Every structure is written in structure tokens, then in C-alpha cells.
Amino acid sequence: MLSNKRTIPATLILSVPILLWIGVICYYSVNAPWYDDFDPFPDFLRKWIHARGVQEHLYLLFQPNNEHRMVVGKLVTLACYALTGHLNFTFLHLAGAGFTLGTLALVAKVFRRHDLPWWYFLPVVLLLFQVQYHLVFLWAICSLQHQPVIFFVCLSMYLLSKNRFSGALAAALCATFAMSNGIFVWVAGAAVLTLQASYRWLLVWLAAGAVAVACYFHGLTTMGNESSFAYFAQYPHLSVLGFFAFLGGLFDFFPEKPVFSRSVLPVIMGFAVMIWISIWLFGLVRPWFLSVFVKKNKESQVKNRNGNLSPSSGFLLGVLIFLLVNAFIIALLRPRFGFFVMIVSNYKMYPALFLIVAYLSLLFFSKNRKQTIFRGTLVIAAGIWLMSALNYLPVIAERSRYLTINAYNQEHHGFGLGHVPHSAGARYVDALMKDMVAGGIYQYPKAGNELGRLALRQAGTPPLADVQVIVRDSTIVMDEPAGSVSISRQTGQIAFLRADGKVYFFKMNPRLYAGRNFLRQYDRGFTVEIPLSIMQAGTYELGMLRLENGRSSGGIVRSIQVP
């Protein structure tokens, strides 16, 4: 336990990664929906406002979105609207972050049972509050799926490990209806209850789980998952490698590199950590197995009736089983979309939690080498945290600019934040967002309109001589040779087409480095390909904005004729 004199500095040190993580959310968050956000947030809220009667409201709350029922996320959306009268996606990002803070609090409760020095908790904080999973905490639908489901699974396992069955059951139901992988909480809980030898409660748990899962899948489609089994039969090795890549995903330090080179280290480290996990699991299962199936003496039978799990072991076991089932299902169903899915940012919370479970299981149950375990894990966790900040913050900054300029395109031209321009999906999004704006429920970010005014003020002469433009087939390719990548959301290169007082924005992407230095991701310069098919026929001025920490420059490159 901490003395009062040590509590304040300990809290301050442990808070630094957490506050920086929250700062990243506040700084880079853009109040704009993106792709899958439209259905569960603005469209749901619009239908909720116009719904009549309890039955219709309940139907909307439990209505699936793709392959998920995200009741928790919809309740958070309703809370946002009730508190502010608006739909604000930054609010949703921060609300999702609150669930991760709750997960940390639960892990801290388990940690405090062991009377360890406070600094031994620092690797947990560093692993949980790094920026690799930015597509979770900066994308509303993922923010209110993955973070709540992890919190409720951890809460359920925490309560189950303390023999508080009713609370654990309620948390498991919340996990189930947070997103589809929440159903794995029933597998995790069954494992804990089995090793606790709580067989009567196990039957109740399995019965409740069967009902919950049946309700969850009622009316859902298979989403084409049957083709995943055919793909697995053809490429089984990808699922095996994918399982370890998923678990070792935090060792994917270079998100802009080719998938093969990115995935080698995650596969190796996922396999290495699983060696210890297998040893630890064997140590948990063996006493239970002997007491149930061997029954050498009465003492072992008494021990079986009293359970073989400590509360900490029960918590870690439940969380681990949940993570392993996730890894198995993802490795089985997702390789057909590309192996990059195994290490995609959306899933990076799970390998973070996997490493935390591995560290705590090693720390709690090692008798003589706790300091060595702490020091080694601290080096690894600090390295992951630093490498993540170095290589992922530029990606996050570029995505923030992308959302800002495409929110402008969506507001003024009816496309940009999802679906192919001028398609049926784009028309649906355009009508939906115009309705939300007209009703005073949503407002687009002001930063995009500021950029629009800057683009309209750019002079046509002299032309930008250092920018190269090639028009081929139905695409404009524009290259800027000198720019460098930045972590500032106010620094970057943006291309635009303008005509008749209208501006269309296109984010320029940093050139990727192709040399021998594996630690380097970006080269100098930016490039963009603009498809002319999204533009109406006419004559446009092609220009570029250079932004640097609030200052802007740029100009017009040339005229473009769109047939």
C-alpha cells in the first residue's frame, strides 16, 4: 500500500501517459462522422426523435448495425443529446475513453490486492494508454464498441472472481449488447466458474448465456462469413499466423510499411508471449483437473469444492479467455479481407490487454523475480509507448486533416465522409446530414469553412512553379516535392479545385519512404490523385494550400478542363 507522502507523486507519474492520451483525443478529434458512423448515430438519433411509443424506441435501441447490436453506444448517444441538445462526435470519442479509464480502475483494484510498489503498475498504464489504437478512440463507432465491451467484460470477470454472481451476470449482459464479440464473455465466465468449481452457478451462467446469445443473433444475417471458412480451408496457415499477429499487434511499429514487414515482429512476439501464457494456464488447470478426474484423496476433493482460483487468477483468466477467443475468431474469419486486418488499428486494444494480462500473471505469481520482471516489462512497455508516439502521431494528424476537409466537402457538396460520390449511399448520407443540420442537432466543424475561405482568396498568378501536375485518363496527379510530415493538425498540404465560388478539397498524402532505412516511414514531398469522375463538367482552377502551424500559403497551379 502507498503511504500518504508517496500517494501524490505516484499519482502524478502514473497520470502522465493517461493525460497525454486524453490530450491526443482532444487535440485530434474532429466532430464529424465517418463511414459506419452514420447508421448508429445520426440516423438512429433522427429515428429515435420521431419514434412513438416504448416498443418502437426499444426496437431502435436493439436494432443491429451491420453485424453488431451496440445498445451501449446508442445509450451514450442519447445521453449526449439529452445533456447538450446536439450530436457531437468529440463527445462520443471522450465518452468512449471513459470506459477505458474504467477498465484501468478495475485492473488497479486487482493490482492493489498484492501489496506491490506503485511503480510496478507503470507498465500497465504505458501499455493501455498508447496511441496505436487511434481508430478506436478517434472513430465514434469503434470508440463505443470496443472500449465498452472490454470494460464490461473486465467488470464481469472482476465481480465473478469475487463471487458476486448477480453483478457479474448484469455486466455480461451489457458486454453482450455492446458489440458482437461481447458474447465471448460467456465463454470466459464459464472458464472461471469451472476452475472455481462453482458448478451450480456455472449451469445458471450457461443458461443465461444461451438466452442472451440467442436474443443477440435473432434476426441477424451471417454477413457472408460462410466464405471465410472456404478461405480458411484454402489458406489455413494465414489463420495460424494471424492468431499470433493479432495477439502481438502492439509490436507493429511502422503502420505505413508493407503488411508483410509490419507483421513479422507481431507474429514472433505473439508466439513468444503465448509460451508463458500456456505455462501459466497449465498451472491453473492442472490442480483442477487432478482434483476432478484423479481424486487421489479427500483433501483434493475438498479443495475442488472450495475452488482452485484466487480472485486475481480468476480475473486474469477470464480476461485472457475472452482475448484468446477473440484472436481465434478474428484469425478464422478475417484473413479473407487481407492479412493487414490482423494488425489493424481498430483491434489494437486487445493485444494491449493481452500484454497486460501476461505481465500481471507473471508478476503476481512469481516468488523471487518480481523486480526483474518489472524492469524487463517496463523497458518493453516504454519502448512500445515511445515508438507508437513517434510513428503513429503523424498518421493520426493526417487523418484529422482528412476528416476536416472532407467534412467541408460533405457540407457543401454532398460527399466526402463516406460512400462513393453521387452513389445511392452518398445521397442517403447527404440527405441525413442536411436533415440533422436543419434540425439544429449537428453542426459541421468550423475549421473546414476557414480553409474554404483561404482557398477562395488564393491568387491565380504567379502559378506555383514547384508543383507538378499530370493529367492522365480521368485522373489528376499532383506532386509537391518539398513538404515534410508533421504531427500538427494545422500543418500539411491540401489540393483544391475551385470554380464559380465553390471549392473542392483533396488531402495530399506524404510520400512513403522506399529506401533501406527500415526505421524511416516518410520521404519529403506530398502527392494526391484526384478522380475527375466525381467532378461536374466545366473549367476549374487547380490549386494548393500549404499550412504550417496556423500560417498559410499557396496558390493556383493551372486550369483543368473536366469533360
Write the layout of secondary structure elements.
Elements: H1 4-28, H2 39-50, H3 54-62, H4 71-84, H5 89-112, H6 122-128, H7 134-137, H8 140-143, H9 146-161, H10 165-176, H11 185-195, H12 199-217, H13 226-234, H14 236-247, H15 259-294, H16 298-306, H17 311-333, H18 349-364, H19 370-413, H20 424-438, H21 446-457, E1 468-472, E2 475-480, E3 492-499, E4 502-507, E5 509-512, E6 522-531, E7 538-548, E8 551-562
Helix pairs in contact: 2-4, 4-5, 5-9, 6-18, 6-19, 9-10, 9-11, 9-17, 10-12, 11-12, 11-17, 13-14, 14-15, 14-17, 15-16, 15-18, 17-18, 18-19, 19-21
Order of helices and strands: HHHHHHHHHHHHHHHHHHHHHEEEEEEEE
Helix share bin: 55-70%
Order of strands across the main sheet: 1-2-6-5
Report the span from N to C terminus: 73 Å
Gross geometry: globular
Strand content: 5-15%
Sheet with the most strands, sense and barrel status: 4 strands, antiparallel
Based on CA atoms alone, the radius of gyration comes out at 26 Å
Structural class: alpha+beta
Key terms for this structure?
8 strands, 4-stranded antiparallel β-sheet, single chain, 563 residues, alpha+beta, 11% strand
Written account of the structure:
This protein is an alpha+beta fold. It is 59% helix and 11% strand. The protein has helices spanning 4-28, 39-50, 54-62, 71-84, 89-112, 122-128, 134-137, 140-143, 146-161, 165-176, 185-195, 199-217, 226-234, 236-247, 259-294, 298-306, 311-333, 349-364, 370-413, 424-438, 446-457, and strands spanning 468-472, 475-480, 492-499, 502-507, 509-512, 522-531, 538-548, 551-562. The chain has a four-stranded antiparallel beta sheet with strand order 1-2-6-5, with no helix packed on it. A four-stranded antiparallel beta sheet has the order 4-3-7-8.
